[in-house]
Amino acid sequence: MSLKFGVLGLLKGEPLHGYEVKNRFEAMLGGTWEVNIGQIYTTLQRLERDGLVRPIGRRGDRGKLQYELSPEGHKALDQWLAQPDSGPQQLHEDIYVKLLLATRIANGDLKGLLARQKRAYLQRLRDLNRLEERARRDGRVDLARLVRGALLHTEADLKWMDELSSERFGAEEGARTE
Amino acid sequence: MDGRTFFRAFRGGGGGKNGMSELVRLTEVTKVYQGGITGALNGVSLIVEKGEFTAIMGPSGSGKSTLLNLVAGLDRPTSGSVAVGGTDLGKLGESGLARFRRDNIGFVFQFFYLLPNLTSLENVLIPAQLKGSDATARARELLGQLGIQDIADRFPARLSGGQQQRVAIARALINSPTLLLADEPTGALDTHTGDQVMELLGQLNRDGQTILLVTHDAKLATRHAARVISVMDGKIVDDARLESPERAASEVIRVRSEEASR
After folding, report:
1. B192 — contact with chain A (CB < 8 Å)?
2. Same domain flag for A61 and A121
3. Across chain A, how many H-helices and E-strands are there?
4. What average pLDDT is seen over chain B?
5. What is the pTM of this model?
6. B262 in contact with A at a CB cutoff of 8 Å?
7. For residues B256 and B258, which has the higher predicted lDDT (pLDDT)?
8. Chain A: nearest CA to B162, how far in angstroms?
9. Average pLDDT over residues B143-162
10. Looking at the 3D structure of chain A, how many domains does it have?
């Protein structure tokens, strides 16, 4: 979803061809999201099909074909930007499934799992701190904000590990696994 | 911040990451408080090397501040031993302990604890005066390096929280302590000011200062401390040494979304 609107947002500034879209998108995301050129062309084609962008000039070499936002595209982008991100919480990481499985397989003994995961989160915090520093050094305040969000999320994950490890929460008896 | 050369000069270029040597050793330390278990310690052993920046983390009541106070010689263990720089603190009497603190320990607190009727400069000079040395020049230079030379003659009530904490750091450093202890030094500061104070501590460590930091802020702890010790219910439950390689952004964060279909 956000690739589609990312492309729309970049085209709002000025007409661009596929490679420019790819490069600017990746630069905007500061290396946190790599896309291949095929995805960009597919996205542009779908946006054209839906009437949100239109090509400028003659169709020929698609590498040289520039796109611009249509009035509908402007509207769709503004609507998307004005909408809160209200979908379900995304829990992509393995730890969530590992935790559920370990509760069954290891008979509820999570100590090792939690300790290892805690280390991983501490290391990630350190890596994120360095990334934030780098972003600020490079004058990328927007990117530093994104990293800050990741830092706070990882801090929450760490607190979760601590809570699960503490006697009060970790050793609940008869934890149901249905 | 260009305090590098300055701090190195004051420290005689010593310290640093190479040539690790032991500075603090806790052996089977317990601390029992009457009437409750909060803050108690239960068999803690720990070695801190010279030049390390170590963060001690844990929930309130876990014993992390107790640990710091024992290392500072502000409190004595119920059993076990605490040694700093080879000195067994248990063998020192009260005046010996006071001398030890004065000469070896710099302490930074959450609420600064500056004396309200003394100026910034006078506050910084207290530990040096207890030692009987005139350190006015060094105090002024410390204030300068901490970016607060212009408030030397102001009283604490007229300083912001960040300025007060910088004065407190200068006071902690005036006697060139072998060990700088900081107990939630950013706890009473806003995020931005807290970041600056932590940056100063990081700079001091890069110039060789050994630092033991108690905090509950994992974000700040991992920014500067390469070692993070977790304390829970009076015990050390984890002792992590973190790496600091240069990682590509995509190795650390990936902004994802559902596939660009539809």
Report:
1. no
2. no
3. 8, 3
4. 87
5. 0.83
6. yes
7. B256
8. 21
9. 93
10. 2
